[in-house]
C-alpha cells in the first residue's frame, strides 16, 4: 500500500505538533512557485503576451505602484542616519520630529531595544490618537501593545485558548476572511467556527448567522471568541453602527471575547459608509456592556495611507480585560523583547501626521489625498469593469483594499481543475497568471460558500496599474468564456 | 480564606491557557518598574548620588554607548529615502549597494512585503556567508528562514513539540540560560529539563551532565530537543570542537533535535578560543552523523558588530530535516508574512561587509576594530575588577556579550530579601539600582544552582561606560559588604 519511504515520512510527521500538521498551506505557495518560474522565463527572453507580471495578490500598495509618503520616509531616514538631521535638504519639521523621536530611544539610537509594549511616549501618542478618533472615549496607554504586525497581535489567542479544554475551544471567524487568521487558530489547537457573510447583501454581517454558527458548534467545540474584520478583507464591506451594536449584544450574551481587526479603518470610500470603531460603539452603548465586553482591536503601519508593510509593526488595544489576565499577556509578549523600532516610529508618524502650517503639510496632504482619491477611483472602476464581464459579479465596494468578485466556472473547467489536482478557482488564477501575467488570489484561500468561486485582488495600486490589471483580466476572461462555454 | 474578588480572579485565570499561566514573569519587570520611578524622580530634581541610571541589563550595545556602524546606517537610510542614492554626501559604494538592494524589493520599496522566508537574493547571500564561514561546507538557501529575531526562530519548537503527547515533550536547556527560551518552551506546553554548566570549569558543558539530565527526565517528560547557546549567554564560555563533537554524538544517540543559538559567534576574545559552528563540526564528523543529526542554528542582526537590536531580524538555518516536516515549518512561518525588510537588508550588509578597496572599507574596518577591541578590553577589565572585590567571583570570559559573576550574599541579607518578597539576587540588584543607579540582571532570571547567586551585565558597551559601571559596582559592593558582614 505504502512505500518504505512513505511510511518513514508518516512516522516523522506523526511526531510533530498535530495542530501545525492541521494548518492548511496557503494556495499562494502553489501560485508563487509558478510566478517565480514565469519571472525566470521572462528573464531568459521566453516570449509571452506580456513583458512583466502584475502581482496584486496581497494588500501591498508599494508593490502596486503607490509611492511611499515623503514625510514618513524623510523622518525615518533621519532617525537612521542622524547626520541628516542637520542637513538643510530636509524640511525643518522633519528634522525636529526626528530629533524628538530619537530622544525617546535609549542611547539615542533606533538600534536599541525598547520596552516590551513599545516606546512609552509612542504608547501615549497611540492612545491620544484613539481618543481623538473615537470622539473622546478615553484610551489607557497601559492597554496598548505595539507588535510586529497585526497578525502577530493575534497571538493574544495563545493566552485565551486553552489547549487542554475539552471540548476544544473555538473561534467564530468570518467567511470569507483573511486566510492567516484561520491558520493561526488551527495552529493553536482551536477550532474555526465559520460564519458566512451575506454576499447578496453586499457581504453584510447578519447576527442570525452568528447564532446559527454558535448552534453549529454544539458538540464540536466551545466558542470563546468572535473574530471580525471591519472594513472587510477580502469583501470590502463596511459595518453600520446598528450591525455593530447587534454584534456587541451577541458577544455579551454569549460571553465571547471580541477580536476586531480594524486595520483598514482609513480605507472607506462608499458614499454612505463611515468607519466607527468597536471601542467607540461599545462606549456609546453604556454600562453594563461598556464595562464588561472584552475587546481587542488591531491596527497596522502596513495600512493607513503610508502602507509600510515592510516595517512589520502594528498595535493592539485591549479593553475590559481582567488585570490578572493582562499580566499574563504582558509576560507572553515579553518573550519577544519588542516590536521593530522603525515600525514603532512609523506608527507614531501615521497617527500624528504633519499639521496645517508645518512645512511638510502641503506635500503630505497632497500625497495622501492622491492615494485616497486613487483608491476610491480604483474601487469604482474595478466594480464597473468586473460587472461588465459575463460570469463575473462584484458587490459594491465600501472600503478596504480588495475586490472579491464571484466568478462562474463552467463544469468542463471544474473537471479540468480536478484533473490538474487544483481547486477550481486556484486553477483559474493559475491560468490567468500563465496566460495574462496577472496574479490574483483564489476564493478558496479566503473561504466561500460551497459551489461558489471567487477571486481577490488588491485595489490599492496606482491608477495606471489598476487599469492594466482590469485590461488583462478582461482579455483573459473573455477568451476563457469562449473556450469553456 | 479568599475574598470574592480573589475568587473571581482565579476563575478568570482558570480559563486561560495553562501553559501561559505557567510562564514565569521576568524579574526584569520588577526592576524595570523601579527604573521608571527613579528616572522620573531624577527628572523632578530629586537628589541622588548619581545623575543618570546606567542600564546594562540587556545585551544592547547602542544603549551602552556603542555607536552604530556608519556604512550600515548610510545604506539603510538610502534604501528608505532613495533621493539620497543620488546625494554626493554618501560614498559611491553605499549608493551602489542601496540601489542593488532596492532592486530586489518589489516595487523598489522597502515598504513592500517580501517572500515568506525572506528576499530570495538575501537568502543566497546568507547561504554564501555560511559556506565561507564554515570552510566550504555547503549551505542551501532553501533551508534558510529570515525571522523577526532569533527568539522568534524558536517558534520552530511550535512545530516540533506535540502538545498532546503523553508524557509531555521536554527540551534540555542550559542553566544558566537566556531567560526567554525557558519561557517559550513553557508557553508551548513542554517541560524544561535543566542541564547545569560547570561554573568551576569556566561554565564548560560536560556531556555527563547531559546524560544526568536525560535520566532526570524519566517519568517526567520525553525530551525531544537539546538547546545550546554558544558562545554562552550569560556565561561567556566558548565551546571547544571536542566538546561539540561529544554533544553531537549525544544528540544522535538520544535522537534529539539540536537547537544551536549561535548569535554571539562574532564575539570571541578568549586567547585560545575560536568560534566553530555546529554545522561545520557536524559536517567534519562525516556520515552517518552528518546526514542524520537534525540541527537548527540561529543568528541575529541584533548581534555581530552592528548590534542593530531595534531592527528585529535574524536567520535560522535548518539541517537534515525531512522535506515533509520542512513543508509544515514553511506553512507555520507563512502566517507571519515576512521578517522586517530593513532588518533583512541589514543582515545582508552584516554578512557582506565592505571589502578592501571599496570607499567605505577604511571607516568600516576602523569602526568594527574599535568595537572588537573595546569588547575584549571590557571583558578583561570586568573580570579583573569583579575578582578584586570580596564576595564576587567571575570565571574568565572567552566570548559573548556578558559577565556573569557569582555573588556571595550574607544570610542576614537573604533574610531581608525574604521580608521584601524578592529573590535574594533580585533584591541585591534592586539595591544596586537604588543606591548606585546601576541596573544589572539577577542570576535568578537565568537560572543557577540552588544556594548560589549571580548578577549579569552587558560588557558590549563603550569603554567609558564599562569603567563607570565597574566603579559604581565597586562602590556599592564595598559598602554592601560592610553593611552585611
TrEMBL record, chains A, B:
<dbReference type="InterPro" id="IPR045088">
    <property type="entry name" value="ALAT1/2-like"/>
</dbReference>
<dbReference type="InterPro" id="IPR015422">
    <property type="entry name" value="PyrdxlP-dep_Trfase_small"/>
</dbReference>
<comment type="subunit">
    <text>Homodimer.</text>
</comment>
<dbReference type="InterPro" id="IPR015424">
    <property type="entry name" value="PyrdxlP-dep_Trfase"/>
</dbReference>
<comment type="similarity">
    <text>Belongs to the class-I pyridoxal-phosphate-dependent aminotransferase family. Alanine aminotransferase subfamily.</text>
</comment>
<dbReference type="GO" id="GO:0004021">
    <property type="term" value="F:L-alanine:2-oxoglutarate aminotransferase activity"/>
</dbReference>
<dbReference type="InterPro" id="IPR015421">
    <property type="entry name" value="PyrdxlP-dep_Trfase_major"/>
</dbReference>
<comment type="pathway">
    <text>Amino-acid degradation; L-alanine degradation via transaminase pathway; pyruvate from L-alanine: step 1/1.</text>
</comment>
<keyword id="KW-0808">Transferase</keyword>
<dbReference type="GO" id="GO:0042853">
    <property type="term" value="P:L-alanine catabolic process"/>
</dbReference>
<keyword id="KW-0663">Pyridoxal phosphate</keyword>
<feature type="domain" description="Aminotransferase class I/classII large">
    <location>
        <begin position="81"/>
        <end position="473"/>
    </location>
</feature>
<protein>
    <recommendedName>
        <fullName>alanine transaminase</fullName>
        <ecNumber>2.6.1.2</ecNumber>
    </recommendedName>
</protein>
<dbReference type="InterPro" id="IPR004839">
    <property type="entry name" value="Aminotransferase_I/II_large"/>
</dbReference>
<keyword id="KW-0032">Aminotransferase</keyword>
<dbReference type="Pfam" id="PF00155">
    <property type="entry name" value="Aminotran_1_2"/>
</dbReference>
<dbReference type="GO" id="GO:0030170">
    <property type="term" value="F:pyridoxal phosphate binding"/>
</dbReference>
